[in-house]
Every structure is written in structure tokens, then in C-alpha cells.
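The material for today's practical consists of a large collection of protein records. There is nothing in a record beyond a sequence line and a structure line. As an example, a complete record with its sequence and its C-alpha cells follows:
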Amino acid sequence: MSQASTSESSTKRQPDEVPQEGDGEDYVEETNEHTPRRQKKTRRDCPYLDTVDRHMLDFDFEKLCSVTLANLNVYACLVCGKYFQGKSKTSPAHFHSLESNHHVYIHLTTKKVYCLPDDYEVVDPSFADVQYLLDPTFSADQIGQLDHLSRPSAALDGTTYVPGTIGLNNIKATDYINIILQCLVHIPALRDFFIQKDNIAHTKSPLVHRFCELVRKVWNPRNFKPQVSPHELLQAVLAASNKRFQIKKQGDPMEFLLWFLNTLHQDLGGTRKPGSSIIYQVFQGEMQVITETPVKGEGPSLSSKTSEEWTTSTTTVPFLALPLDVPASPLFKDEIEKNIIPQVPIYTLLTKYDGQTVHNIITGERKRYNITRLPSYLIMHVKRFTKNNFFLEKNPTIVNFPVRGLDMKDYSSQDVVAPGGSTRYDLISSTKHEGPPGSGVYSAYVQNKGTDQWFEVQDLVVKDVIPQLIAVSEAYIMIY
């Protein structure tokens, strides 16, 4: 146990007092011969308020002491932005205040501000913006207005940004994660759930809590900078996935998306039951799979078998995303075709789910697919990458898709509608990949509903884009 924590544990408490994090250092004893009592030392006239440098503050990184690497009872120096543990006379924060002449600190959990080494709490309304940056909160009315925001916010350096449409730092090679996060924070039902801390109070999952924090920071209209670092969430992803998704090596966004959604579902207490978590409520649909298996034995070839020579089974399976199979690119091209990029309408790919199109499986089976329950939000995945024993191949075919009014009526069972009462969907976000397979660059397209403006986001770079360009990009994942 550190000396600072020893000092805290030795502080006496009144029987009816509920201990809070940091309380052990926030009280001093006042005793007379009649009644011992405790009082907080607070002041409003701190002489060091003008030393606070908001440009140095960044609360996006792990809340670890820069000296001990401990994560308990950590304070941020509001002069230099560094983190230090404790504030007792033997703590790193106390020593830093003496050595660097930095006197104003904020507790990263309680959000209380202190002056060191004098050790008194500073009660001043001028710290409201710092406290809000540390822990943004939203009222029900504010959440209801998020899709109507049209006025840009200003960062400390004068840069303007639109809340919700904000860049994310790329830590080494995390663009494949960043684009998924950008897409998810723009899904209203998901955003509105995770932006309220009370909705996740029942779980201790670091992944859930870090994602909740990121959603609130991305939509914060009072950010000091026009970007956010997902560093803490990335650390939680690394731990929860057992290092399956790396920070230093580019991965597959679709693999990450499915893992992320399923892990959030489990950590929120979700079960196999439909609608058992916000993830299933938002994304889960169902499809009917009709499988025809050839009867074993001598006889005509599979292609000429009659219906009596096949056994048929029907199963209903849930899905979080619909895979779209793109036709193979031609192996040989002449000089003219070399410069032509093949294109295919998304409706051609969706015929896979019309219940009539037969797909021959390598095992000899035949399958037909039909959607029996449409989700509130539809994720579609263009199967653009193929792995073999030697390398990763990319199909460059452009999938043309509508930004508004994608109708799923012809690919669903009769009378099936989405929870909103329709079979028509509008695009919310999409991702694209440019460059060679295994490297290249991922970016996301997201929409600001308040202005109806689309943006292309590539890590920290956010720029306007017209929707016509989205529909002819090398789309990889689309969310409607």
C-alpha cells in the first residue's frame, strides 16, 4: 500500500458519514475538549486561477498517475495537464505542486478542484467548462435535439466543428476501428441509449463504459478541441478481445463490428432472446433459410434430380448484418477494359434474399434465403475481400446503392415491415476502402441530420461531400 493510501485509511470518519472517493484527503480534523468535528476547507478566492491553461487539458487518455501508473484517486494538473495520484503531503501531486509551482488540480472522478500544496477545495463557477469536458452529460431535452443541431461549435483555438461530426485520432493503425465508431455514434437509437450513463449503470464492463464515454465526448458541444481520442476505448477493446484487434496492425472493420456488437450485447446482459439488449433491439433481424440436400445413392446427376430426390429443411436464423456477394472480376482484360471499373446495382445483389434465387453450395446442397423480420437499422456488408492460402484479394466492383429510399419489400416475406412500419430505408452511414488489400485507407461517410449535410471522415480529417459521390464509392459497409 502506498504512503498516500495509508494516510487516507487512517483518517477518522463520523459513523453516519458515507465515504466517497477522495474524501480521505478532503477533510481536516478540528477538535476541542467537548466535540470533535470535521470541516471541509473550501475557498472561492484562489490566487492561482489565472495559471490554469485549458489548451493543455486532454481527458481522453487513461486516468493513470504519470509517476506511479496507479488508477486510483488520480488528479489532473490544470496547468500542465499531467495526471498525478493523491494530494496528501507524500503524494506525487503534492510534490509536483512544489517542484513545478503548479497549484490547481481536478479530481478525475469527483470533478472537485483543489489548490495544492495548501490543500483546500476551490469553489468557483469558472471551472464549469473544465468539469463538463471531463464528464459531459445530456438532459432528455438535449438528447431530443441532437438530430436538429445546425449551429457549429467553436474550439479554444477558434476552429469550428459540428457536434457529432468530429475527427478521431488514429493510434498507429486504428482507422479500421475509427470508421466503425463513427458509424455507430450516428445511429440515433444507439446513441441515445449510450449517451445516458444511467442506462449502463448495471454493468461493470469497461468496454461498455468506455464506449458510453466516447459517445458523450463526440456529441459534446463544448469540446476544447475539434477532435477526440478513442484511446481509452481502444485499450478496453484490446483487453476484451484478448488482443485480437490490434492498435499497431490494421484489421477488418466488418470483423470488428460484429465482435463489438456481440460483446456489447453480452456485457449489457443480453441473451439469445430477441430484443434482450439495445443491440438486438436496434440491429437484429431474422431470415428463413431453406436447404435442399440431395438424397444419397446412385442415380442422375445433382443438376437433373427431381424434387422427390431432395430433402428439404427450413430454419429461421437471426442476423445482425446482411452479406452481399459481389460478382467476380474478370481475370483477363483488354486495353480498353483495363480502365473500366465494373459496377453492379445493389438490388442485383439483394436478389439473394428474395426466397426464389437458388444458391449452389460446394457440399452439394442448395439454399434459398428470405428475410422474415426486418431490423430497425439494417447493416449490409459488401464481401469485397477474399482470403486464400497466400494473400488477400480485393474485388474493386462498385456497388451502386441509393442514399434514400432503399426498398426491401421484394426481399422479405409478405407483409414483413421494419419496426417503423415500412420496408424503405434511408442511408445513415457507410464506409469505404481505397487502396490495396491489407493496407490502403478506410474512411466513413456520416450525415448531420440538422443540416442534411454529408461528411467524409478519415481519422482527424472531416470534409463536406455530396451524396452522389457516396453512392459510387468503394463501399464496404452500409447502415440504413
The two ends are 52 Å apart (CA to CA). The chain has 13 helices and 29 strands.
